[in-house]
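Technical annex B. To support the medicinal chemistry partners, we prepared a structural model of the target in complex with coenzyme A, based solely on the information shown next.
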Amino acid sequence: MGKALEGVRILDFTHVQSGPTCTQLLAWFGADVIKVERPGVGDITRGQLQDIPKVDSLYFTMLNHNKRSITIDSKNKKGMEILERLVRHCDVLVENFAPGALDRMGLTWERIQQLNPRMIYASVKGFGPGPYADCKVYENVAQCTGGSASTTGFRDGPPLVTGAQIGDSGTGLHLALGIVTALYHRVMTGKGQRVTCAMQDGVLNLARVKMRDQQRLKHGPLTEYSQHGEGIPFGAAVPRAGNDSGGGQPGRILKCKGWEKDPDAYIYFITQAPVWEAICDIIGEPGWKAHADYATPAARLPRLNEIFGRIEQWTMTKSKFEAMDILNERDIPCGPILSMKELAEDPSLRATGTIVEVDHPTRGKYLSVGNPIKLSASTSEVKRSPLLGEQTEEVLRELGYTAEEIAALKQVGATAVLKKAAAE
Ligand code: COA
C-alpha cells in the first residue's frame, strides 16, 4: 500500500501550531514536507515549554512529525535564491507568519506565480480582510474573537477558553482541506491558487451552532438551555450554556462514584428521546414513562434540572465506566470524562495508531497523537520530527547544488549562522 500524497512536495514555512498542524497532516499522508527554519534558531516552539533541557520540546516534536528540516536565512541574498529554487521545486507553499512577513521577504504572490504558476500558496492569518487584518493572533485570541469564548462557560461566570486548540489546530485542519482541494483543482486545470484561512473564521465555523441559536433567539427562548427551565430570561446574545448539549437532545455532565477525590469521575449523559423509557427504568423512576410532566421531550424541557438531579443520584452510585457499561446495554448515549492519563494508557487508541510511541535521538521515547484520519487504501506512519537543519545538505543536493556551492552557502550565512570574524 502506498501513501495518498506521495509525490507532493510542500515548502513548509510554518511555525508554532496552526501551520505545523496542517503540514504534519499532509506529511502523514505521504507528502514530502520541507520545513524551512531560521539558522541557529528554528521554530520558536523547539525551545518552548521544554521538559528536558536543550532537547526539542514536546510542543515541537508532536507537531512536526514526518518532516525534513532545512535552515535558510530568508533575509540573506543567497538564502532567498535557495528559497526561490524551492518555490520552483515544490507544489505547495504553506506559511503562517504575521501579515505581510512573506511580502517583506520579497516572496509576494506575484513573484511566486512568476516562479511557479502551478504553485498553491496557503496561509493562516488571524483575521480575514477587514479592520483587524494586520493583527497577530494566537490560539486564545481566536477563540475569543471567533465566538467560542462568549458561548463557553457558565451563565453566571466569565467567558472561558477551551483546552482543545480549535483556533490553531482547528484552522490548520481547515487549511489542509483547502490545500488538497486546490491540488485537485490543479489536476483539472493545471493552475495553482491562493488558499487562505483566518483563525477567526475557522473558530466561527466550529461554533456554527451558536450562530444558529443567535438567530433562533428572535423567535423565542432557547428552550433546551437550562436557564429556560430556571425561569431566567434571555438577553440579546446567545448566553453561555454550561454543559448543556449543543443539539436537540438535552445532556449534562453528572457526578459518578468517587467524584469527591477524582476530578474526572464524571460522565456525559444524554436524555435522548427514543431511549427515555430505558432511562426511567435504570434510574428507578418507571412512573415517569407515562407521567404528563416527564413523558414527552417538550414536557421535560422546563424540568431539566430536576431530571438531571435525579439521574445524578443514580450515576453517583456507579463508577463512570460501570455507568457507561450499563447505559450502553440500553443504547443510551453517554461518555465518561477521560483524563489525558487515561487516554495515554488506552489500549484501543494504541491499537488504532491514534496514540503512538515515537523514538527521538535526543529525547528518547515519547507519546504522540497519531493521524486521526484513517484511509483504507493508503498507509500513514508517524516518524519523528527532524532536528534543526538535519536535512539541509540533503535538500540542497536535491535542488542541484554541488558540494562546493553548499559549503559556500554556509560560509556566507545563507544556511548557517554567520560566524563572527575573530578579533584581530
Ligand atoms: N530567516 C529569516 N527571517 C525569518 C525566517 C527565516 N528563515 N523565518 C521567519 N523570519 C522572520 C520573518 O520574516 C519575520 O520578520 P519581519 O517581521 O522582519 O518581516 C519574523 O521572522 C517573524 O515573523 P512573525 O510571524 O511576526 O513572528 P512573531 O513571533 O512575532 O509572531 C505569530 C508569531 C504567531 C503571532 C504570528 O506569526 C501570526 O500572527 N501568525 C499568523 C496567525 C497564526 O498562525 N497564529 C497562530 C500561531 S500558532
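Notes passed to the chemistry partners:
The chain has a mean pLDDT of 96.
The pocket of coenzyme A is lined by residues 16-19, 36, 38, 72-75, 96-98, 101, 104-105, 124-126, 136-138, 168 (CB under 6 Å).
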